[in-house]
Amino acid sequence: MKALRDPDCLLAEGLAAIRAQFKVPAAFPPAAEAAAEAAARRMPDAHADRTGLPFVTLDPARSTDLDQAFAIQPAGGDLLLHYAIADVPWFMADDDPLDREAWVRGETTYLPDGKAGLYPKAISEAAASLLPDGPRPAVIFTSRIGPDGKAVLQGVERALIRSRAKLGYETVRPEDLPAGFAELARRVAAADDARGAARVDPPEQEVERGEDGHYTLRLRPLSRAERQNAALSLATNLAVADALLAAGTGLFRVMEGPDAGGETRLRFTAEAFGLEWPHEASLARFERLLDPDEPRAAAFLLAVRRAGEGARYVPYRPGVVPWHAAMAATYCHMTAPLRRLADRYVIRAALAVANGQPVPDEVSTAFERLGPVMAKAGARSGQIERAVIDLAEAAILAGREGEHFSAVVTDLGEAGARIQLCDLPVVARTAARRVRPGDRITVRLEAVDPARRTVRFARLS
Questions:
Q1: In this predicted structure, what is the pLDDT of residue 325?
Q2: Nearest 5°: phi and psi at 197?
Q3: Which of 31, 233, 298, 369 could form a disulfide with 335, with the two C-beta atoms 3.0–4.6 Å apart?
Q4: Residues 120-155 pLDDT 10s
Q5: What is the pLDDT of residues 168-225, one digit of tens each?
């Protein structure tokens, strides 16, 4: 949930309670702030001058923590993608107060009313951010993208870059983007399809209060520019993952797809939304048939995201090929170091491998420790997201007690039947008995408690 429109601040108490419950930090310790201020003054002296390359950034218009910038050049029938990543490792010293605090946080925590950053603003929104107000230190990953969309890492270097423009998803025009941008994204998408990768672009969720006083949940599909921009990040992550795997090192992102039971539940969810899922089509194939701009399809894609076994980080192990089911590939994270702790170490490893140097011992040691740290941070973020969604669902339904809703049973458990409302993207439990997954039932909303983030339904038929 990225945006919450609450002009009367009716949900402010609920969000404050979530922050308190999950101990979301409101500020950085003074020692970490002081370390960040000192780090921000560090002058880059190990960086090549690449300020002549026409880099641009593309992010939400309001973003100021800019991890990535890109430039694209033709190379015969191939395209060279120069993907500049904020050189966060340059500003960090292992085991200083700033580093220790980052290991406690693990990642930036997002709520509708603000975020708790991984690093203080002196780093994340100033010195390390690739803003267009002067040269910035970066790590440039250059990948060659062939006509088939496969990305091969060509080189990694520390460099000074100068962003030409801070482009926003909401306002960018095709003519603002570098030549080759759309073609590169098309090639990467084609490679995804050829591998059998699932779509990984669920919509954003927004909660809005209408004139009648009720809240409504709005699903905002990603814009075309967002999806195309994600292809650049994906191509770079795949190329780096292949290079690290070949070198016998790295930290990889792995994920198993939904098991048979999870896929069955998704079929019932598709039915609830009135989507026709051909019996012979795999989940990945069905996802690629959907239009993410269509609200029912967007809601289904969100359900898919929640149905898998969960992604996790694993270090390199000899003889093991790390696999990400949604990507249908070996995959890593390294393009968002301002927001994820693990990315900083993958960048350091890639710098070493690409330049024929040994991976630093402290990086290899970190790979062994990062899995549990990132899992804890991810679980906490997931719990916060679920709490915010529960709050939003309760707010949406507040004042509608006694109304009847059509629903489809998606699962059974000790707590009763899990149901998916057909006309609202709300998932809940009901004590209905003698029902089976796939049954369409009518329920009455019995009670709503936004303070406790709970709703209660009773089956009518």
A1: 86
A2: -70, 145
A3: 233
A4: 999 999 999 999 998 999 999 999 999 999 999 999
A5: 998 999 999 999 999 999 999 999 989 988 765 666 667 767 677 666 666 667 788 9
In whole numbers, what is the pLDDT of the chain averaged over residues? 90
CB 428 within 8 A of CB 305: no
Write the burial class of residue 413 (CB in 10 Å: 0-12 exposed, 13-18 middle, 19+ buried).
exposed
C-alpha distances in Å from residue 393, one per residue of 222, 233, 307, 449: 22, 32, 19, 10
- Taking the C-alpha atoms of residue 403 and residue 138, their distance in angstroms, rounded to an integer, is 56
> Which residue type is seen at 279?
H
Rounded to whole angstroms, the Cα distance separating 68 from 139 reads 10
Which residue bears the tokens 């709503």?
Answer: 448
**Do the Cβ atoms of 435 and 409 come closer than 8 Å?**
yes
Question: Which residues have CB under 8 Å from 115's CB, separation 6+?
Answer: 108, 109
The pLDDT score that the predictor gives to residue 25 is 96
Highest mean pLDDT among 2-11, 98-107, 190-199, 267-276: 98-107
The CA radius of gyration of the chain, in Å to the nearest whole number, is 23
Q: Tens of pLDDT along 343-378?
A: 999 999 999 999 999 999 999 999 999 999 999 999
Closest CA to 180 of 116, 237, 236, 232: 232
CA dihedral 43, 103, 98, 31 (to 10 degrees): 180
Taking alpha carbons only, the member of 371, 317, 291, 381 closest to residue 107 is 381
Report CA-CA distances (Å) from 436 to 80, 165, 188, 259.
53, 55, 41, 19
At residue 261, the pLDDT reads 83
- Nearest one of 425, 460, 429 to 219, comparing CA atoms: 425
CA distances from 427 to 16, 227, 301, 450 (A): 23, 27, 14, 15
Q: What angle do CA 427, 430, 434 make, to 5 degrees?
A: 120
Question: Kindly report the CA angle at 228 between 225 and 232, in degrees rounded to 5?
Answer: 130
What's the rounded mean pLDDT across residues 420-440?
83
Which overall architecture, per CATH, does domain 404-459 show?
Answer: Beta Barrel (2.40)
Look up residue 406 and give its two tokens.
């059509």
Task: Report helix, strand or coil for 158.
Answer: strand
CB–CB of 402/445 below 8 Å? yes
Q: DSSP letters of 62-117?
A: T-----EEEEEEEETTEEEEEEEEE-HHHH--TTSHHHHHHHHH-B-EEETTEEE-
Q: What is the C-alpha to C-alpha distance for residues 373 and 366, in angstroms, rounded to an integer?
A: 10
Q: Where are the domains of the chain?
A: 3-257+309-397, 404-459
